[in-house]
User: Fold this.
Amino acid sequence: MNSDDFQYLSTMLKASSGLMLTTEKTYLLESRLNPIANRRKFNSLEQLVRAVRQNTDPELKREVIEAMTTNESFFFRDKTPFDIFRETVLPELLKVKAQRRQIRIWCAAASNGQEPYSLAMILKEEAHKLLGWNVEILGTDLATNVIERARMGLYSQFEVQRGMPIQMLIKYFSEVGDMWQISPEIRAMVTFKPFNLLDSFASLGQFDVIFCRNVLIYFDQETKADVLNRISRLLPEHGSLFLGAAETVLGLCPKFKPVPGKRGVYCLEPAQVH
Assistant:
């Protein structure tokens, strides 16, 4: 891929999704776009990019953007955030929300659904404590193709082996051919919809817990700060924000502070409570 085409695609991706693509990722870009070029019967990536530049086929542009976004995820990724949610965040919510008996969770950049389904399984395990409660889990992602796949809850043997406790697999999945499908009761606990983190959050409402893990690392500093500032408006005093292990709010958003002893978990500074 020539540098001009790479620069065009990189600029397009930044404008449409906020994601930054550096030149050392050229190989990744080529590997993601070659299947589209083959499927669409283009003779080369240059021909594909030329067609995208002409902007006469919105569906082609959408396919290219979705292929360029990273959709790597697995169940109970990094384990610790899910332990923190189960052992400290959820018990605290059960106290704080005892009168309203409602919990709302947002998994931003939910990819194929492993993260929100992991949370749903934890909540299912704690169902005896949540009798009479209304629990909502929203999973969003920029890519409509992964959202469709998440709704199906269908995963390969490789995908369910990554991080999934065997007892959870036996309890909540059934074999469908050479795939594994998560149970209807767990699928019903999560609502998926396409959503771009560059868009307004106004329609989303407030959340008690927000997982926005391993997506800010792909943004530049200005976009990171903007997303974090807008997330802060969705959280109440008791709200928790979970970021990835390589992500931080420090130097980006003074509205948040780290929760002591809970790496990757942040809460609002008292002056920022809405």
Observations:
- Residues 242 and 265 are 5 Å apart (CA to CA).
- The chain is about 40% helix and 15% strand.
- The longest strand covers residues 134-141.
- Residues 3-68 form one domain.
